[in-house]
Amino acid sequence: MIYVIDGSLESLLCAVFEWFERKPGNIILQLEKYYQPDAFAAEFHVHRDQKKADRVWTGLKKKLDKSWMRRFYCAFLSESAQAYSSLFEFTCYIFSNPAGSEVNYGNAHVLAVAQTAKKVEREKHRMEAFIRFQHSADGIFYCVIDPDFNVLPLIMNHFKNRYADQQWIIYDLKRHYGLYYNLEKAEEVNLTPEEEKNLQKTTGELHAVKENFYAILWKDYFKSTNIVARKNTKLHVQHVPKRYWKYLTEKMDT
Amino acid sequence: MSERVREKLNILADAAKYDVSCSSSGGTRKNDNKGLGDSHASGICHTYTEDGRCVSLLKILLTNHCIYDCAFCVSRKSNDIERAAFTVEEVVSLTINFYRRNFIEGLFLSSGIFKNADFTMERLLRVVKKLRLEERFNGYIHLKTIPGASEELIREAGLYADRMSINLEMPTEKGLKLLAPEKSHEDVKRPLGFVQNQIVQFNDEKKLIKSTPKFVPAGQSTQMVIGATPETDKDIMHTADAFYKNFSLKRVYYSGYIPISHDNRLPLIGTQPPLIRENRLYQTDWLMRFYGFHVNELLNDANPHLDVDIDPKLSWALRNLQFFPIDINVAAYKMILRIPGIGVSSAKKIIQARKFGKLRIEQLKKIGVAYNRAKYFIKCADTPYQINDYQASQIKSFILMESQSKYLKNDIQQLILF
After folding, report:
1. Whole-angstrom Cα distance, residue A133 to residue B365?
2. pLDDT at residue A203 greater than cutoff 80
């Protein structure tokens, strides 16, 4: 049996609901966009139903504490098909076993959810560290990113609390949406491809002289705080993987 | 202002880089005044230098003018280098502008001693006060306590800083006297003790009166230079242990000496900094703080030095094979922590998971245990039966054969005949 879901959190939760309603035994969970019909297995399209999803979510909340609910959500934000399967199996396992079963790290699905959540949290932490704002002429601090996982929902509060007195935009180029904070609240924004391109421009009118000065100061600081006698490129790259360099001021040329 | 600020930043950041501490953890300041900044409990490393060290704070000296002449220090009076001094406004503006762009978590401010201790401390205090009161800055501030400054000034600074620190410089009094005759460990202990007392007092008051202000919420730390003077690892770690205990320090940092002087009391310029040794000392430090080891178990008169080729935990295990193998399905948490190849998070997972059934090798590997290392020291549900016990030297050579040292490019493998 193959369950096909559309990839939203609701559809994942509905899949769990349908599984308990039908008890079809072992199933394979597949995402609609990757799904190819199989001649030998029956398929079942899970329809999104807010009510069913809510029931599963409330049920989960009764079984899991806050930290595990967060792990569940984080693993979901990894957006990987493998993670969806693990989450599905994990949820079925939690509902079929007595309370407290989520710490059974001997169980492959429990471990997979914990480990995936950890990866997403790491990416979230990296974004909190590697985001570099630029101050534009209209007074907004902006920054573009393309994180491995969909971490914008996780970092929103951090930046809202930290930069409460400045307007900022963090835009995810990979997923084509961003966060905008207008001194009151942070909200999701979607830009047209044209606007996205403008956002990425680091030169021209957007980029004030003052901005350049601070970029230079920061690069200078990055250089002077380094101890040449201790050079350790391997460790450096391990902490700041190369895929992030293109957005790091201190790693940019000129 | 621009060009001169740039020059100053280069000089004063360069002079401050030998201070290892860059942590921004333990801050509890919340952005409740709609100002700028909010601390992050675990701290954030915003980038890493090419030597692999974390950059979390803007680490600068207020000035590198200094009245002292400590042989190990790059800013010593007799050293012929460019000198500079920031104004209070310049430091504040740099901090705020870097912070707004998410470059840093906050400020690490130290200084050479100019005129006298009080004068210097008063300047540092002016910077932090301006940041906190005028700029409404809630980011992290790590401030150096200047030994010899008056208690009123230190106390006031503690109300605005998140962490304060004073460096011990050398692990023993004797070493310090050799290189910096004007300084002593007593000068460090007095202010450390004073701040420690104040922290305790403020915390006690806080229990009664909720509005008591924060006082150095992220605690104190210190730093020792290693490899400049001939102390043993045992001397170093026993000093560290005493300071952890007596002053409830959050961290002791060990800084491998980087030759910067032609002084004949010190290693020659061009000598490699003792990086492996530094690494082993940090490992020992971690074992003491998170793994429940007593310093005497790791370093004592029989073993005054840490092994270079293997880590201190493995080396302890090999000296104490009578405790092994440990059955991970029944052993206590603190014994599991002592198994080489098992860290804190794996140990916790094992304790949780074994309630649901006996654990097997496969599961241990998935949990994250370094099984190739741990297998000589553990028993689990499907450990194969083994007739003869291995000697410590055999286990060591098996492990060394399988692992690659990150320091030694060409492994020196000794032949084993038996």
Report:
1. 41
2. no
